[in-house]
């Protein structure tokens, strides 16, 4: 018995609807009283909306909506959207990150103008990401991707009087526009070959064979490029350090956790549903092997992200590069897919999704800690972090949890998610990919532990003044830290759900 | 459930201590740490295991529930104790409580964090010694490092940053190598096991289920895994030449942290060597008997010679730990009931005695604010009780009969002489015994110069007898050392019971 047997099918999109309505409600509140500085009402509405959407997604997941136990994926609007376990799983990631970010923004934005716009942009971007997870046609993929991207450009440039923020917004927008164009061109090439935009129909058309292998290959490559932009992977990664560093820290948290996960959500679906590996390799005689492409990208992305992160003096920029490194780990989910993988394909893709889930907590928490330090006005370099633990031990403990978890150290959630990822890569026969990942992961401890060392062990170079104790930021950071710790004993439901819903794609 | 309760109570004690005001943290931590002491003594009293936990023996206080299904192998929450781990659990709880008391004087800032971290470390140590699933064990094993890193880095001496980072990097690299070695062993077992439970893995290995993995044959895989794990644990022990992090960590760490480091953390390494290398891969261990015995003797002699050359009392005790751990390795590789049993007994005995020595040095330092042998002489005039216990402890270290150190070393030498792993074993044993002479040399020399002779002190501090709460932990440790020395059977019977199944594997019993 599921709730949807009595509800119409479109009710399966309830998380997206709730988010969209929340965004409109925020605009309404802002219209009624545009000069209000009632930040609490706006932040509260946005957070409640995100939590409600996440709650519905979680409830659907538990009840098996769109999953095999209740009759499989729910296809809507002429196959333009699909609600299945994977879209719900990713919705859970987006909404939990959005909720943490909006709670934290309550303090971060306290003195800024245009707060109503800020929260509604965050919520509309989240709506776009949720739709990205549901997209089942290249047209909806493109539209939802733009719906997620356009608010993001504005959010990065939100601090209108801050040169860094404006510069970051412009860079982000220019590269985003370029990659959108490349992506749209790729879609048109695929349409030229297959005559369809709906993902399963693209696959069906490809299965019948085509002579336009070169065009198909170029199209697939360009689409992959579009995803590389969204996930901040090599070769379209270079916007990320600029945008994350210049943007307001809660926006950096939002982009590096939720927006990246959205890119992966849509990439996972497009490549496994529209271009199943066994079909495209059969068509192209092995020349359109995107698994190999992603394997190369994964290795280059994680290595580049790691080494660049190790050379930074600015904590925010270090985290930006670490975020590129983590995109490399998540790419293993696509790289380790094989034509005869069977259950192993679902396992490795699911492990990648589970890693993104854990990453959503630990990375958001880390950026929100930076938001807190910015709020205190302490600066951004490692030296500026010296001795923070003596003034704010609870926040510093949380940051320590995030750093060690990002490095993959037990006893935190990041340990199991990385282990699951590497173990499933070995299970698919990609032990060298797992080895590169493990070595990178070990090296990453170097720069993550620098933050910990600065906070706890170093003496502050100048007297440390911590003014306020921002409540919202504390709530968000402690929530993220507790989540990161609890995901160690509670990893079982996450990995089980992720691998089950991922297996349904194959 | 008592093990879970023990760990949970210790975690809770840590959390409570973290939020207490600094003024009360030390006293409260002491009171709270009595709970695990009582718990572990109750466990010891109710203890009813037989045989080795990994080799099909009867496990005491066992819990085994499925936790994670991750790929091919499940992860279980499996804990329990046998004759090898039970004494170490008791050692951990008692030593932590005494170390907390000894920290009252020297720790004067951020007390609640300090004592909270001590208790947090105790909780994880209890996990290390009771876990019987590889992942559970590994999580606790790594989780011990984090409090230690902060304890050295925040409250340490002038070069604490360097020492903390060196400790952290050395032990983390070691953990990674060990992890890869063990995991490749598990993958080599293929479908013959279904989980990471250590008993299951050990028994599958004994049944000869090891296959090939990553292009290595079963024999080569066993060798590679053995070497990787040995390297990983040898850093922790530490075995020369991987010991260089130890003196830095010890010298920079505050005294109570040194006590924990020497008393319990080093035993993690030898305990893991016994559990993993020597129980799971006995044939491979025998094949590597010559290099391992060489390393053991090198640690004994080199560690002792280094101690001889030091001017800093704490460095002397630190290097002598390297020497004592060499005896443990020698006993393990002997593969006789007295050798392996004696090595396990030495873990406990050395835990008590090295704790005693570090504390005694710490008490002297609290008063004199120097540890340099050349800065003082005739301290016994002004601090007769402390000096008396120091002398007694030093004699325990030298192996005075009727003290725990004597029993441990006697067992090890007896076992090593009886060993049949290789012809030259008595030769190595003889060489290692020479270490005792050097130990006696440097300890007597150091005591003669600092404690005895006419009083002289190059400093501005008033030298008077230490307060009661500084001396009391020393007296307790001395008492325990004597009790264990007079009747080693308190622990040795259960140790032998757990050790003998290991020896039966190789047929050398």
Mean pLDDT of chain B: 90
Which of globular, elongated, flat, extended, rod-shaped describes the shape of chain B?
A: globular
Number of helices of chain B: 20
Which strand order spans the largest sheet of chain A, edge to edge or round the barrel? 1-2
Task: Based on Cα principal axes, name the global outline of chain A.
Answer: globular
Give the oligomeric state.
heterodimer
Strand proportion of chain A:
under 5%
What is the topology, as strand order, of the major beta sheet of chain B?
A: 1-2
Name the average pLDDT of chain A.
88
Kindly, what is the distance between the CA atoms of the first and last residues of chain A, rounded to a whole number of angstroms?
A: 26 Å
Please render the helix and strand layout as text:
The complex is a heterodimer of chains A (506) and B (509).
Chain A lengths: L13 H19 L6 H25 L10 E3 L4 E3 L1 H24 L6 H20 L3 H19 L6 H32 L4 H9 L5 H19 L7 H8 L2 H26 L2 H8 L5 H21 L4 H21 L7 H34 L11 H4 L1 H14 L6 H15 L3 H26 L14 H16 L4 H13 L3
Antiparallel strand pairs in A: 1-2
Helix pairs in contact in A: 1-2, 1-4, 2-3, 2-4, 3-4, 3-10, 3-14, 3-19, 4-5, 4-10, 5-6, 5-10, 6-7, 6-8, 6-9, 8-10, 9-10, 9-13, 10-13, 10-14, 12-13, 12-18, 13-14, 13-17, 13-18, 14-16, 14-17, 14-19, 14-20, 16-18, 16-19, 17-18
Chain B lengths: L1 H18 L2 H25 L13 E11 L2 E9 L3 H18 L8 H20 L3 H22 L4 H29 L9 H9 L11 H19 L8 H8 L2 H26 L1 H6 L1 H20 L4 H22 L2 H32 L7 E2 L1 H4 L1 H15 L5 H15 L6 H26 L5 E2 L10 H19 L2 H18 L3
How is this structure best described in words?
With 506 residues, chain A is mainly alpha-helical. Chain A has a domain at 300-506. A two-stranded antiparallel sheet of chain A has the order 1-2. Chain A is built from 20 helices and 2 strands. In chain A, helix 6 runs antiparallel to helix 8 (213-231). In chain A, strand 1 (74-76) and strand 2 (81-83) form a beta hairpin. Chain B is mainly alpha-helical and 509 residues long. In chain B, strand 1 and strand 2 (73-81) form a beta hairpin. The model of chain B has no long low-confidence stretch (mean pLDDT 90). Chain B is built from 20 helices and 4 strands. In chain B, the strands form 2 sheets. Chain B has a two-stranded antiparallel sheet with strand order 1-2. A two-stranded antiparallel ribbon of chain B has the order 3-4. The longest helix of chain B is centred in the C-terminal third of the chain and has 32 residues, at 337-368. Classes of the chains: A mainly alpha (506), B mainly alpha (509). The interface between A and B is medium-sized, with 30 and 28 residues. Chain B: It is found in: Membrane. Chain B: Residues 132-432 form the NADH:quinone oxidoreductase/Mrp antiporter transmembrane domain. Chain B: This is NADH dehydrogenase-like complex subunit M.
